[in-house]
Amino acid sequence: xxxxxxxxxxxxxxxxxxxxxxxxxxxxxxxxxxxxxxxxxxxxxxxxxxxxxxxxxxxxxxxxxxxxxxxxxxxxxxxxxxxxxxxxxxxxxxxxxxxxxxxxxxxxxxxxxxxxxxxxxxxxxxxxxxxxxxxxxxxxxxxxxxxxxxxxxxxxxxxxxxxxxxxxxxxxxxxxxxxxxxxxxxxxxxxxxxxxxxxxxxxxxxxxxxxxxxxxxxxxxxxxxxxxxxxxxxxxxxxxxxxxxxxxxxxxxxxxxxxxxxxxxxxxxxxxxxxxxxxxxxxxxxxxxxxxxxxxxxxxxxxxxxxxxxxxxxxxxxxxxxxxxxxxxxxxxxxxxxxx
Length: 340
Prior knowledge:
Blueprint: E1 3-7, H1 12-21, E2 40-41, E3 43-49, E4 56-62, E5 72-75, E6 79-86, H2 91-100, H3 105-114, E7 122-128, E8 133-137, E9 145-150, E10 153-157, H4 165-175, H5 181-195, E11 204-210, E12 222-228, H6 234-260, H7 263-276, H8 281-293, H9 297-310, H10 313-324, H11 331-338
Antiparallel strand pairs: 1-9, 2-6, 3-4, 3-10, 4-11, 5-6, 6-7, 7-8, 9-10, 11-12
């Protein structure tokens, strides 16, 4: 079932006057205290889950600096949260704690909204590891404010230029079902911006992806964590960073293959990364190293030469690699590389 809600906030002029005063980023308590200040993140967001892999993601764009520091939250095996409008950041950690304990997204969100005296100014979405979703839009969120929930997603927006943003995001998310979850979320965000987006314009964006199962190692918790804090077109930049992230996934796979001594697998991974970003110096360099280690010494030389031409420091790095076993060439071959 798809649920849609639109709000027509009251006292808009008073709210805008209040918004001009509230610039302090401390609003972590459960109650709304105007005298203490609250961060504004009038924005659009999506929380979503891949029904096949179980990955969960949250994507956000706003005309507000560094929106990812307050709005987006996620924990592997628990769920993801977007808390926006007049932001109450406590919805993030408290919501994740509840969902990690087994509470569904709907009950978790309902409990926190009930306890929040500033609920009328909040816009929040929860998604749990089972695919349960819940979204709430307070009656005093700035128009156009709306949300839509469907199978494995919730989309919400406030202070939008028009009422087409949320439907456009939902349609884009559903029609790109063949893409990995992160790419689907970016497609939805691009659709939201094309439909009109934030009435104030654009500034920052975030993409966060976590896994379906709890992890003991904190460094494995976030599979993707990308932020654009200040940019003229943050969603476009977020898409570029996601493509770069995918290329560096190949680089990481190549590094792991080197650790195993599988130079063939390393070369394949570095080559794929280089195909994705052919101008990237790092990728070109390690592809050259992998080729030199895999019996393609002569083919590696033009790549080394291109890298050295761009930056002489890579030549010095090459001089140091044999001692670490990362460049497995003869002394004569090393001299030939360094002499390029």
